[in-house]
């Protein structure tokens, strides 16, 4: 029966090329937008180089200090001291890395200024983040203890400062009038990976890192790597327990705050927490996202409903004949729904090809440095689901309307 429905759908497509073009164009355009959007969201929140362990990593990235009634509050990244004392002491994680947020420096080549995004990290950063070393190696504990002026740079900075593809380990780079010995060269990270992106990486004991600040607030975040996904709730509970034992003096941190809120979040939860800290705001955020997606999918679906109604109306006589020979409304309903899903998947195939072309153009355009958008397994599954949903949205209403058409009315048409 299913094969017969598909054969009928194929014949219908060939019967009216104009309706076929309009239908497939609308489906392909809509699904292309959704596939590219899905790929970009996966690029932002998925586990990709160099944060390929993000699926089992928690982030301690923000400290909120407030009074008991929340009339005043202060929030921002933590200090190295705070994270070293309370995050590094956790027993459940496999590893804990501490890395600074963005800071900026300058270097000069032949009088030309190169703006640098710099990061200060501990040794464990290189174990939690999966950077590919093109040359050399990361700094070690001895470099940190000795306060060595060493640095790991990206291949892009190497090409700008030295020479494209040159061997530079052991050479020196002048940054803010300090000579750093290049100890390693890594493949760079996209700027959308906020906590790993940089042009140059220093040990946290390097100048201007402010790691010796004893206060609670600073410019560092912790990346807490779990042994498996299943360990993440236990790590969060352990960290919450550690924070709950802080004394009043530690919470106040020399200021008039009595409440400290700091969490070990999954990446997306941390991202969302920047915009919506309480449940009501999160519901509002999800509502807005839902409305946007509904508009992206709903408006084209409504247009395709009209096209499908016109396309099916032409087959009124066929419907009348089938009803006259005893075809139940349920069978007609499923026929039209399956036909529409089949047509949607054809449009989805065109959309998949078009999406791959667009993604390839984005990756090679340089709009996003080191962009690595892909149609991976996750994106493909989401795309399949979108095709099914879109096929149902644009096909159910016309199918219901036609399946309920009376025999006499159908034959007259």
UniProtKB/TrEMBL annotation:
Pfam families: FtsX, MacB_PCD
Source organism (scientific name): Dyadobacter luteus
Keywords from the UniProt entry: Cell membrane, Membrane, Transmembrane, Transmembrane helix
Top-level taxon of the source organism: Bacteria
The name this protein goes by in its record: ABC transporter permease
Domain spans labelled ABC3 transporter permease C-terminal: 291-406
Record's GO cellular component terms: plasma membrane
Transmembrane segments: 21-41, 283-305, 332-362, 374-397
Coiled-coil ranges from the UniProt annotation: none
Subcellular location, principal: membrane
């Amino acid at each position: 029966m299913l094969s017969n429905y598909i054969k009928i759908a194929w014949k219908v497509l060939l019967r009216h090329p104009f309706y076929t073009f309009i239908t497939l164009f609308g489906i392909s355009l809509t699904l292309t937008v959704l596939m590219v959007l899905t790929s970009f969201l996966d690029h932002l929140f998925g586990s990709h180089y160099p944060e390929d362990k993000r699926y089992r990593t928690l982030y301690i990235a923000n400290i909120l200090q407030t009074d008991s009634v929340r009339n005043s509050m202060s929030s921002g990244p933590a200090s190295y001291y705070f994270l070293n004392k309370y995050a590094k002491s956790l027993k459940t994680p496999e590893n804990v890395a501490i890395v600074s947020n963005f800071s900026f420096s300058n270097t000069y080549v032949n009088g030309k200024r190169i703006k640098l995004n710099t990061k200060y990290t501990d040794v464990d950063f290189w174990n939690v983040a999966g950077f590919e070393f093109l040359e050399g190696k990361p700094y070690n504990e001895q470099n940190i203890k000795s306060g060595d002026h060493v640095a790991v740079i990206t291949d892009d900075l190497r090409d700008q400062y030295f020479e494209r593809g040159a061997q530079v380990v052991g050479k020196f780079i002048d940054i803010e009038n300090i000579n750093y010995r290049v100890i390693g060269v890594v493949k760079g990270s996209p700027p959308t990976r906020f906590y790993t992106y940089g042009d140059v990486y220093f040990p946290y004991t390097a100048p201007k890192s402010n790691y010796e600040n004893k206060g609670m607030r600073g410019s560092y975040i912790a990346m807490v790597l779990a042994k498996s996904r299943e360990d993440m709730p236990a790590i969060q509970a352990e960290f919450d327990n550690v924070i709950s034992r802080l004394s009043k003096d530690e919470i106040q941190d020399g200021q008039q705050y009595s409440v400290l809120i700091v969490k070990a979040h999954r990446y997306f939860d941390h991202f969302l927490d920047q915009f919506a800290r309480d449940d009501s705001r999160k519901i509002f955020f999800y509502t807005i996202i839902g409305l946007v997606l509904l508009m992206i999918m709903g408006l084209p679906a409504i247009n395709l409903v009209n096209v499908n109604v016109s396309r099916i109306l032409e087959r009124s006589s066929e419907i009348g004949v089938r009803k006259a020979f005893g075809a139940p409304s349920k069978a007609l309903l499923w026929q039209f729904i399956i036909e529409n899903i089949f047509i949607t998947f054809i449009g989805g195939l065109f959309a998949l090809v078009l999406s791959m072309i667009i993604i390839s153009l984005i990756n090679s355009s340089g709009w996003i440095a080191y962009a690595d958008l892909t149609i991976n397994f996750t994106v493909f599954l989401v795309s399949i689901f979108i095709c099914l949903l879109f096929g149902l949205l644009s096909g159910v209403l016309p199918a219901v309307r036609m399946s309920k058409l009376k025999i006499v009315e159908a034959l007259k048409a």
